[in-house]
Amino acid sequence: MAVPPIPQARAAVPVRAVRVPLMLDVVVGLLVAVALPLAIVAIPNTISVVAALLPPGASLIALTRAHGLALPVMLLTVPLASVAVRRFRSAPILVVGLTLLAAADAAGGYAGSAVTVGVLRVLHGLGAGLLLPATLVAVWERPRRRFLLPLWAGTLAASLAGAQALALWPLAKATAWQVTLQPYPLLTGVALALAAVYLVLWIVARDGAGVDRAGSDSEGTSTSERSRLGLAAVPAAGIAVLAVGTTFDWPPVLVIAAAAVAVVAMLGLGAVAAFEGPGGRTLAFTSVAVGLVVLPTAAQTTYVEMGGVRGGPGLSGLWLPFLLAAVVALATACLVGAVREERAGRFVGAGLVAVVAGLCAIRLIAPTPDGLLLVVPFALLAGGSAVALVAALRPVRLGTALLGLSLCFPAVLAGFLLGTGVQLTRLQDVARSGDPTRPEVIAQAFVDALWTWALVGGFAVVGIIVIASWLGRREPAPSHRKSAVLVPSPTPSPEEKTGDNGESFSDR
Fold it and tell me: Which of 173, 183, 293, 379 could connect to 457 by a Cys-Cys bridge, CB 3.0–4.6 Å?
């Protein structure tokens, strides 16, 4: 007599094959939503806002210089961390990065000197620099990357647009200046706990029967990829040294000229060192454009709209525009993520044009006492950059994506330097022609600087669009490409893997 099969014996395999990867996808999504904004919030230098809380005898200049070390350290860390995360995978790098952030937050309350502030901000920069490529690789390792990549790009764009406001909100009712060193300690702890859960799930899945090998790269990073990522550290080091040097009273014209040369150098590196021809070059140019204008513009606008002689909604009136801009960024990123891959490249230019429109809206709307009107420029900046990033990221491989990320944050620092140079020029004009002691005159100088920067940034992005288009047309497209956008091969290549849900995909 035949014995019927036992249903439970068959069900044991799917439970492990489905639940662990699904939990990994959920945890990765939560990590992106929490850890990525924490990394970007480490960028702003907010020590001057709490100057009144500094102890007697403390040097505001020395503390400001020390507090500003986070961004130079971050942009130096990103290309080196990109190589490390390809070798050691994303899970352990995420834990290390968040541990550094948590340690800096915990020690921030005990800071009492410029040296201590400098050390803690270096830790912030190291931790943030590790998190940026680690979150991207964590997304890339998952078989549901098509859904997670728009979340990553949208969160990055929204974080760039709102970083200055996010860094300033905890200071509104601060009673100690050390709050600038630990703006969101609880959120950092939550992110660290999520990273620990992700590490455990990743180890369990890796030890399972082929589970979570979706993004594995059996060959690791190639020599060419390592050399290009290492080459990206060269302009990063140059712009970092430049940023530190400008704190020692450089003339504004020299600051602007040096920052402009740095931008040209990054575009040149993106043109010659990018992977995959036009697709890699498009991502490199897009990363430079987004980094150059989004955060520096949003930061200047936030300071102008905080209130004062020219009015403004204040920080309390800015939360709704930034929230709506974040929703727009995530929604538009998901829409572009749903488009077929061979058509996604068409949205890169559209996204950058939206960024230019956002800069024009800044010039037309800001400053305004009605905070709701700021939804227009912030949504255009965040949504446009999210669209451009998703569209540029989808066709490329992981090494190319990491190279583009390595070029984004030197561009952020270059944008800050250019904006600072414009501000200093306007303030010098006020000192020569008017009464520099009148608050309304100084406020108008900052508004004029914002308008000038919006004009400069808009022309810079348009120039990047034109150069990228010209270079793309000069290089002949291979037969398997369409409009310089990578198209998946109809037959699986040897590099393609099988995902947790049975689908095959390429390890890009």
Answer: 293
Q: How far is CA 222 from CA 83, 120, 140, in A?
A: 10, 34, 17
CA 202 – CA 206 distance, rounded (Å): 6
Q: CA-to-CA distance for 246 and 417, rounded, in angstroms?
A: 8
Do β-strands 485-486 and 504-505 pair in parallel, antiparallel, or remain unpaired?
unpaired
Token pair listed for 107: 């020690």
Q: Which residues contact 108 (CB under 8 A, 6 or more apart)?
A: 120, 178, 181, 182, 185
CA separation for the pair 270, 273 (Å, rounded):
6
For the stretch 206-243, pLDDT in tens is: 765 444 443 444 345 566 777 777 777 777 888 888 78
Sign of CA dihedral 137, 139, 142, 145: negative
How is residue 274 written in tokens? 């990018």
Which of 462, 449, 282 is closest to 356 using CA atoms? 462
256-313 tens-digit pLDDT: 888 898 899 888 888 886 666 668 889 999 999 999 999 999 999 998 887 654 566 7
Residue with tokens 């990357």: 145
β-strand partners of 498: 504
Q: E strands of 74-128, at which residues?
A: none
Give the per-residue pLDDT at 424: 85
Q: Which of helix, strand or coil describes residue 351?
A: helix
Residue among 237, 350, 245, 355 nearest 295 (CA): 355
11-27 pLDDT, tens digit each: 444 444 446 678 888 99
Task: Give CA–CA dist 488/506, Å, rounded.
Answer: 8
As beta bridge partners, residue 485 has 482
Quick one: the chain helix, strand, coil %, rounded to 5? 75, 0, 25
Distances in whole angstroms, Cα of residue 504 to Cα of each of 16, 100, 267, 301: 19, 37, 35, 46
- Using DSSP's 3-state secondary structure scheme, residue 462 falls into helix
Helix ranges (H only) for 338-374 are: 341-344, 346-365
Distance separating alpha carbons of residues 343 and 320, to the nearest angstrom: 33
Strands 485-486 and 497-498: what pairing? unpaired
